[in-house]
Request: fold
Amino acid sequence: MSRIGYKAITVPAGVTVTVDGENITVKGPKGEMTRHFAPEISMTQDGNEIKFDRPDDSFKALHGTTRANLNNMIVGVTDGFKKNMKLVGVGYRAQKQGNKLILNVGYSHPVEMTPPEGIDFDVPSNTEITVSGISKQVVGQWAAEIRAVRSPEPYKGKGIRYVDEYVRRKEGKTGK
Reply:
């Protein structure tokens, strides 16, 4: 069983955590995030450490989830989150125009994607994309949406994939 809910969170210097009822606001050098948390999990702040406690064992999953979500908020406003992706395929390329991402991935038209506020696209080369922001959930969601434009196929391995992703290949047809 995981005991992640009992681990204390150390708040780094330059980050402020404010509790307003069930809403918690975290401010840091990269920005500010506010999130609603369940009232069943109690939070105590002692100096630069935050601890969570649950009333009984029926809230085990919520206990760990609450702690992990607040920790991700603190990491997001200090360091931020990144997802690196690459395009594999002949003629597949990406480019950034303003804050839009334009993908040419084998369709008859280029695919344009406009990110929400707080998400940045970076294109270091025409086959690499970096999605960055302060919210781990939103960064992961946008990376998944980019990947869904042309997900990797198992025969040739062409498509948009995460840098650390392994695409399992299939053999294809066999001749007689």
Remarks:
- The chain is about 20% helix and 35% strand.
